[in-house]
Amino acid sequence: MSQDFARIAGQMGRDVYDGLRRAVELGRWPDGRALTAEQRQTSLQAIIAWERIHLPEQERTGYIEKPGCASDSHDEQPINWRNGGQQDA
User: Fold this and answer.
1) What is the spatial distance between Cα 86 and Cα 33, in angstroms, rounded to a whole number?
2) Into how many domains does the chain fold?
3) Structural domain boundaries, residue 37
4) In 10 A of CB 20, how many CB atoms?
5) CA distance 17 to 21
């Protein structure tokens, strides 16, 4: 991605970002036309560039929480795959 593209994408308004994100999620423009593979790729690059400037890391597309983060302190129950996924009585 060129710096010019990233700069221009970062300057688009929130409404444009939201529209592009929705189009990528649905695979269609608001008028119902399908996105081409090239349009989807370019739109996704613009979304990522915008998010890099305007959103904290944990809210960006594709964010994966790293092990050892604050969420490790939550009380989570592991999934029990024995007995077809049902818990032992």
Assistant:
1) 44
2) 1
3) 3-61
4) 23
5) 6
